[in-house]
UniProtKB/TrEMBL annotation:
It comes from Nocardioides zeicaulis. Residues 18-136 form the XdhC Rossmann domain. PANTHER family: ALDEHYDE OXIDOREDUCTASE MOLYBDENUM COFACTOR ASSEMBLY PROTEIN, XANTHINE DEHYDROGENASE SUBUNIT A-RELATED. This is XdhC family protein.
């Protein structure tokens, strides 16, 4: 009798936290999906600079509210923190303006993922959240997030 091979590993893998600002349907879906994937999620509901959003090396930071008045401050802080992944959900137009603003201030935006997530084509909060969590997972393993088939 042959031994069955499982497609997963039981080895414990340590990842940083997934820090999400602010509380909305997408951030709640991110919490559900990322928790199921074994990630610790911290949602900061306040739109006032992200108090308590203290990114550590290895953490992922996702700004789910591009209209938050503190978006530039949150991104500035996260990009300078050593977080492994920093992203913002935004239209390409809004993203371009914000990136331009941060770059003019001297902030290195080369690692900023905007718009956040992989291009899955999803429109609803759960589908958008899936694309974001998939990108976080891919980044944490140094993978591009494309199809596995050759």
């Amino acid at each position: 009798m042959s031994e069955r091979q499982q497609p997963w590993s039981d080895a414990e893998v340590r990842h940083g936290r997934l820090l999400v600002l602010s509380d909305n349907p997408i951030s709640r879906a991110i919490t559900t999906i990322a928790t199921a994937a074994g990630r610790e999620v911290v949602v900061v509901a306040d739109d006032d600079g992200g108090p308590g959003l203290d990114p550590q090396p290895g953490d992922a930071v996702v700004l789910c509210d591009h209209d938050a008045p503190d978006a530039p401050a949150v991104l500035r802080h996260a990009l300078g923190s050593g977080a492994a992944y920093v992203a913002m959900m935004a239209s390409r137009r809004r993203a371009a303006g914000l990136v331009e603003e941060l770059t003019a201030e001297g902030v290195d935006t080369s690692t900023l993922h905007v718009p956040a997530g992989l291009d899955l084509g999803g429109k609803g909060p759960g589908e958008i959240a899936l694309s974001v969590v998939a990108e976080v997972v891919a980044e944490s393993y140094g993978r591009p997030g494309g199809p596995m088939r050759g």
